[in-house]
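User: Predict the structure for this protein chain, please.
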Amino acid sequence: MKLLVDMNLSPTWVTSLEAGGFEAIHWSKVGQPDAPDNQLFAWARQHEYVIFTHDLDFGAMLALTGVGLPSVFQIRTQDVSPAVLAHRAVVLLRRFEVELKLGALIVADELRERVRLLPLVPR
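Assistant: Here is the predicted structure, written as structure tokens:
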């Protein structure tokens, strides 16, 4: 699985995710650091990457667009450093790899996770 690490997370996440067995790249290596989120979203979709982020905007974009990809893995904690969360993130990415390949929004914190399959549709 290929992961695109958003600008709001440290590039050190790439090393941690690669150590966990994933292909990963930080947005700063493929796009402009100040690019709008929709540009990152489009790039991830075109290149078949899962967006790895701390940003709530991607969940909102999935809801508004109703698309089935790209998948988004969203960290919702105060401390988003790999030293604190890398192990949990890798475990969850492995557990939900099939869902992420098919299209999913996964929101995770230190204790729990929520998985929503795409496309997101209003209830």
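The chain has a mean pLDDT of 94.
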